[in-house]
Amino acid sequence: MRERIALLAAAIVFGLLHLIPLFQGIANLVALPAYYAQLGIGEHTPWWLLVLGVALPPVAFTAALLIGRGRIISHRVALLLASLATVNALVLSAGALAPILLAFAAGA
Amino acid sequence: MARDPEPGIDDGDDDAALHWAGDEVTGREGARLPEGQADVAETPADEPAPAGPPPRRGMAPLTGLFALLYLVLTVGWILGTGYTSAGAPDLWTQVAWQFGEFTAIIAAPLWFGTTVLLTPWRLGVRLGWLVLGTGVLLPWPVLPLLLTGGAA
Asked: Where are the beta strands (DSSP E) in chain B?
């Protein structure tokens, strides 16, 4: 019973922490196309990257919960922590990739 | 500063190597080992190892190789976070961004540690997850540093 409560608490805490990159992804999805359109390069909007930024946090969180099924609580927390860190790393990677993709698209 | 051994104190090693009168008769001509060492020397080398899960051939070297690779990824993320910015001056965005940067830096060691923790005796599964992590956690923000050669 105690382990179930701890697991629920960990899932809630890490679920909330996964919301931060999710909100960043939604903000990028809303703001970046408008910004590109304002610059007159709306056709170069990296839609796949923006959609990935929104989809990745819930997918990674769900995957961490599913992979951790049947394991001890410490292993499940390790999975959730690795998921959060990976999602945040990918958010930074997406932010770095967007101008590179734009440069390639403009050069093509 | 090293101390000389005190005179008169004998550690017994010299005596153990000496021949004794009558050794030729008893067949003990050779230098003697101390009692404990003699016991160790007589232990057979092919005695079975203690029971445990069978180690997979190549598991340790490959894991060590990936540990080095993930260390490089971590260094890349440490350098790469210097080229990212939140883009907004408000406190909440700054705090969230700093948290994201910190977790991005520890993402590679976390992925590596979790993989090693969860795949103790499955070499193929471990390698698969480690290869996947290498691709996923490439530090793209460090690209400006690589392109400019550190001049930026």
From this structure: none
* CA atoms within 13 A of residue A102's CA, in its CB half-sphere: 17
Q: What is the DSSP letter of B90?
A: S
Partners of A84 on chain B (C-beta within 8 Å) are 103
Residue B11 is classified by DSSP as -
Domain ranges of chain A: 2-107
Nearest one of A46, A48, A31, A58 to A100, comparing CA atoms:
A46
CA–CA separation, B127 vs B115, rounded Å? 9
* Contact call for residues A10 and A80 (beta carbons, < 8 A): yes
Q: Among B93, B94, B103, which would you mutate to test the A interface (most chain A Cβ atoms within 10 Å of its Cβ)?
A: B103
Nearest-angstrom CA–CA distance, B152 and B139: 17
The radius of gyration of chain B from alpha carbons, rounded to an integer in Å, stands at: 30
Q: Which residues of chain B have pLDDT under 50?
A: 1-13, 15-19, 25, 27, 29-45, 49, 152
Q: What is the DSSP string of A85-108?
A: HHHHHHHHHHHHHHHHHHHHHHH-
The neighbour count for residue A84, using CB atoms within 10 Å, is: 26
Question: d(Cα B74, Cα B68) in Å, to the nearest integer?
Answer: 10
pLDDT digits (tens, 9 = 90+) for A1-39: 888 899 999 999 999 999 999 999 999 899 989 988 888
